[in-house]
User: What shape does this take?
Amino acid sequence: MDHFSHSLPRALLFILGGLATVLPGFGATMKLVVTNARLFTMVSGQEKPMNGFLVVAADGTLDAAKEGTPPPEVLAERQFRAERDSGIRFVHGINIGRVGPQWSTEQANAFTKGFVEWVGAQPPTPGFLSVMINGAGTFVGTPAQAKAEAEVMRTLALGNQTHFLESPPDKYEERAKFRWLQDAGLLGPGLLFGHFVHTDPWILRETVHAGAGMSWNPLSNGRLASGIVDIPAYVKAGLRIGMGVDGQASADRADPFENMRMGLYQVRARYEDASVLSPYDVLRMHTVGSADVLGVADRLGSLAPGKLADFLVLDPSDLGPIFDPYASLVFVAGTRDLARVYVGGELKVLNGQTVGPAFAQARAEVAKRVKTPGGP
Assistant: This one.
């Protein structure tokens, strides 16, 4: 599949759901790259399967058919173009590569620096906010990855988002790796933990002290049975908290309203107390809080003079009597109520239809590139 043709409709789905800013997964040339292709070569008159990828030139001609995985810069650049062309506001996440015998810290630094310079040479992209590392420091067996990511962060002044303490079976192993992040100098205001479900008092205290933040993902946590985050305890401790949906791969729907409801319901049910978290609290986390942990609170998160004009317009017809706007937004509203979505003051969605890149066309392009189940 092609990173551009798949990333574009994903980004458009976020906009359709009223999510104007995203931090996608890892990002990759001016050439089209079709990955995970079923390739066949003729050897001695017989077809031989080859797992690899096609490189298609801008004029539509086949440039190469290669075995293996596309180079990381190819994937990063293709995904960046899709994010840009969708019109969404985005922080681009990049994978610096798995550091080890075949990939050094110096190589990771050079690759990331090359991508950042490539981004800087692109035509102006109004929706682009920054580049952030997709961290993997706790997913490996040695502290080398955390050290490398910390070095790249310092050298290029980049943030880092790391999924951490999400899966219940892995929580004890990951807690032990928390010191790797500390010792590497990775823990700080530029670090954003994704999920952060299974902490302990010491990890929470050290995270708050370092100024790091977290992204709370209630839909994903419920879908994957990851657990219920103790948000009231995190708030009391002073942790910086934003909210996200973690993408359709684990949350099924890019729906911020459902995400806020799910989080509020989970926490109230855990505490058996409706007063521990309010609709205003989760709405603020999903807006101002998210902008804060992404390091863009000076530009996003609230409507104020000088900030970017990203906002939603809802049709209140089906919301019933509105006594508390915050409660109505969180308890009642949904993507069905979205009348308009604006990014940078520019209309992007009108009555459920994207304005600009045609979502139906992008989705049709994906269908053409994906093998139909049971098909040839």
